[in-house]
Amino acid sequence: MTDLDKGMENLRKGSLMYLLAVAVSLASIIPIAALSFTEGELIDPALFASLGALAILIGVAIVLGIASFVYLFMATGALRKVNEKYGIGRKGVLLILLGLISLSFSLIPVLFAVASGEIASLNVGIIGLLFSIVLLLIGAILFGIMLLELEDVDSRFKTAGIIYIIGIIVPFLIIVAMILVYSAASRVIKGTRAAV
């Protein structure tokens, strides 16, 4: 299997894991909605069932999200070997990952400030959140640029890249972009196998 094949295969898996994570996250709305119909008593079986379903869905979404990052990281590594200009995608994935980690840690002082009224903690948290947002934005832009560069491999990647970058402002479009990434990667893999 060539580096291009590995890159396309992992790109397809990564985009699929992302789409599944989004689907599971949206499905978590169901138990949340069900919670509004419970009476709020701790011994209410419906409350336990809703909270249990919510916890499971959130856990599955997190696992799928992590799997998506792993596959995308491997994909960008393989594609970088095909052409150095594709390496910008790996930098993007790393920055997005660092941004998410930073965001998680930044929420701790914010939550502490909300609970205790400590202004200093709030300031630290806000600075951390802003830093995280910058990392996420730069990472998303770099990944989008890699998709644009992959036009050399399949024209659908350019469309996916444009929509992905616009999706930074309109997040729903990122879902559309990842569908196109899955489609383009699948078409490249199918074409490669047909040529053998």
Distance between the termini: 11 Å
Question: Which sequence of SSEs, written as H and E, runs from N to C?
Answer: HHHHHHH
Proportion of residues in helical segments: over 70%
Note the main sheet.
none
Q: What shape does the CA trace take?
A: globular
Number of strands: 0
Beta-strand fraction estimate? under 5%
Domain module count: 1
Q: Mean pLDDT, nearest integer?
A: 86
Unreliable sequence segments = none
Number of helices: 7
Structural class: mainly alpha
Radius of gyration: 20 Å
Summarize the model shown.
This protein has helices at residues 3-27, 29-35, 45-82, 88-116, 119-149, 155-166, 172-195. With 196 residues, the protein is mainly alpha-helical. The radius of gyration is 20 Å and the shape is globular.
Could you explain how this protein is built, in words?
It contains seven helices and no strands. The chain is an all-alpha fold. The protein has one domain (3-195). Helix 3 runs antiparallel to helix 4 and helix 5 runs antiparallel to helix 6.
